[in-house]
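TL;DR need C-alpha cells for one chain.
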Amino acid sequence: MLDNLGIVSISWRHETTGALRRFTLGRGEEPQRLRAFAARASLAEVAYLTTCNRVEVIFAATRQTPSRDIRPLVYELLTGEVAVPGEAERRFRAWEGEGAAEHLCLVVTGLHSACVGEVEIVGQVKACHEDAVRSGLSGPRLQLLFEEVLRIAAEIRSETGLGEGRASLAGVVVEHIRRRAARTPGLVVVIGVSSMTERAARSLRKSGIPLLIVNRTEAKARALATQIGAQAISLEAYLRNPPAVEAVLSATNAQRAILDAGTLERIAASSNSGEAPLLIDMALVPDMDAAACARLGLTRIGLEEITREADRGREERMADAARARVLIDEALVRLHDRFAERVHGPVFGALQRRYRRTVEEGRKQFVGKQLNGLGPEERRAVEEWSEMLAHRFASIPCLGLKGLLRNGPEGSVEAFLGGLEPELRDELRQAIERNPHRGRAS
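>> reply
TL;DR here they are.
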C-alpha cells in the first residue's frame, strides 16, 4: 500500500555542509521549480525538506510515473544542471515504499540527525508539508504520510527520553551563548526567524539574556519578539547601524553572506565589554564572511563545528534511540493498515452497503408479511438482527481483503475482484475509481 511513495535524499552523512549548499533551492523559487519537476517526472505530489544537515525530496507517484531511477531528475531540480553519468546515483540516496516511510520516520524523530533526537526537525518537517500544501503540491498520500510520521514522532518523544536535554543543535548553540553571557553580560542578536532560532531565543530569554530579533521581514521578527519579551528590528535597519552586542546568532536562507567585512568590523568595534563578540553562523550558505572573521580576529563558530559538537553526544542517547527504533518498526505495521483503510475504504464501505441491501431485500421478500403482524418492539428486534447479520457477513470479505493488502502479492485485490459476479465486481471497481486516495498502488 506504500508502494507509490518515494524519497531522494542528500545529507551530512555523506556530504560536507559546504557541499550541501549546492543542492538547496533558492528562497522563493521552490514552488515553481517543484511544479516543473513533478510534471516532468509524472509525479502526483512533491514536498521539499531542507535543514542544516539534509535535503529531502519526498513524492508520491502515479500510474503514469515511469519505472526508473529518479535521482538524475532530482539532481537537475536542485542544481539546475544535468548530472554526468553516475554522479546523481553516487551523491543521492533513494528509498521507495515502506523504506521511504521508514526513512522519513527516522528523520522526523531525529534518529538520522547529526545530534540524535534533535527536536527542531519536527517543526521543519511540519513546515515542509505546509509549504507543499500551500503550493498545491501535497495531496492525500503525502497528507497521510506526514500525519502518521509526525504522530509517530510525538509518541516516541512521550515514551522515551529522546529529545531531552541538549538533543538539538539549538541546545549546543544556547550553551555557547550562555557561557559567553555569564562572562560578559550584554545584548545578543538573533538573525533569522526559524524553528531553530526560535527555540534558541526562547531558551536564552528564560535565562534572562536580552535579545534583539532581526529578520528580513520585520513583522516576523516583531511577532517572535513580542512573544518572548525581546526587541525587534528589520535586517536592513540592523545592517545599517548594528548596536553593541556580545554575541550574534545568525541562520537565514540567504544565498550569500549578509554580514560582510564592513559590517563585521562595525560589530567587532561596538562590544561594550571590549571583547570581540561571539559569532555563531548556523546558515547552510554562511551568513558571515569567514575570511573577514579570520582577518579581524573574530571567533566564528560555524554549522559544521556545532554539528560535530552535537555529534559527540550521540552515544549518550543510543539507549533511547534503540527503544525509538522498536517503536518505529511497530508503527510501520500500523501505517500499512492506515493506508489500506484510506485507499480501499470505499471498497469496504461498498461491501457493507451491498450486504445490507441484500439482507433488506431478503427481509422484504421472505418475511415482509410476517413483519406486518409484529409489534414495534418485535419489528425493531428483527431489523437490528438483520443489520447485525449484514455486518457480520460483510466483515468476512473485508478482513480477507485487508489480509491480501497486507500480505498478498501485488495484484491480489484485482484478483479478488476478478472472481466476483460481474455486478458486484463493477460496483466495487467504481468505488475504487471514485476514491481520490487511490494513486498508483490501487
